[in-house]
Amino acid sequence: LNPIEEAEAFRSLQEGFSLSHEEIAERVGRARPAVTNTLRLLKLPSEVQDLLRSGQLTAGQARPLLALESREEILRMAERAATEGLSARSLEALAGAGSAPAKKRQRRKSRPPEPHAAAAAERLTQHLQTKVEIDRRRRGGQIRIHFHTEEELMRLFDLLAGTGDAP
Prior knowledge:
Elements: H1 3-17, H2 21-28, H3 32-40, H4 46-54, H5 59-62, H6 71-84, H7 88-98, H8 115-128, E1 132-136, E2 141-145, H9 150-161
Antiparallel strand pairs: 1-2
Helix pairs in contact: 1-3, 2-3
């Protein structure tokens, strides 16, 4: 099967049997990302799909084209890849350089420490005589207790387990 026939077969499984990408992957013995990437090829213009069908373009060459914004740009790069035999890597580089700058994933702004968590961390730091950090999540969080030596670890263990006295 060529990559488009494979993608159409996956789509048929997806729509005909209401299978998820994960379920398709399990049934055909492929990794889920491979199934997802194969299905993405169906989003390419029909002219590019024809190049894939005929073997003039590989799936590896076609994937970087999905990052391009305009249909014209996709067609131009696909034709160039087919005629010049560009590698997938060089297409990735060209697609990244030739298109509008990719939107950078914005980092989450670190939330200001919650007053209760900050106060609790401070009290624990004083009680345990070592740095304590509390990171809150949506639900729950983490408490990190720092130590520098084996003896300090054992002292902290004794305090937390209730087998030792607070300093």
